[in-house]
C-alpha cells in the first residue's frame, strides 16, 4: 500500500497502522510526532490508527541545538 509521507510516496510493506509505518521507517522511540491529514495522532494511538492507500502523513522529528 502506498501512503504519502512528508509529500513523498512511501510503500508500507508490512501492516497497515501508523505503528507499522514508524517501525518500517525505523523512527526513534522518542522525539517524533506524526500527523495524519494534518491531525496529530498521539503515540499511544499509533497501533490503533489504520492507514488507507494515499493517506497523507507528516513526520516531525525533534531537533536540539542552538
UniProtKB/TrEMBL annotation:
Pfam families: ThiS. InterPro entries: Beta-grasp_dom_sf (IPR012675), Mopterin_synth/thiamin_S_b (IPR016155), Thi_S (IPR010035), ThiS/MoaD-like (IPR003749). It comes from the Bacteria. Coiled coil: none annotated. PANTHER family: SULFUR CARRIER PROTEIN THIS (PTHR34472:SF1). This is Sulfur carrier protein ThiS. The gene is thiS.
Amino acid at each position: 500500500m502506498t501512503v504519502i509521507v512528508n509529500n513523498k510516496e512511501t510503500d508500507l510493506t508490512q501492516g497497515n497502522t501508523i505503528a507499522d509505518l514508524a517501525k518500517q521507517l525505523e523512527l526513534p522511540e522518542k522525539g517524533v510526532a506524526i500527523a495524519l491529514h494534518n491531525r496529530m495522532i498521539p503515540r499511544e494511538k499509533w497501533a490503533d490508527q489504520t492507514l488507507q492507500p494515499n493517506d497523507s502523513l507528516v513526520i516531525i522529528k525533534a531537533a536540539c541545538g542552538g
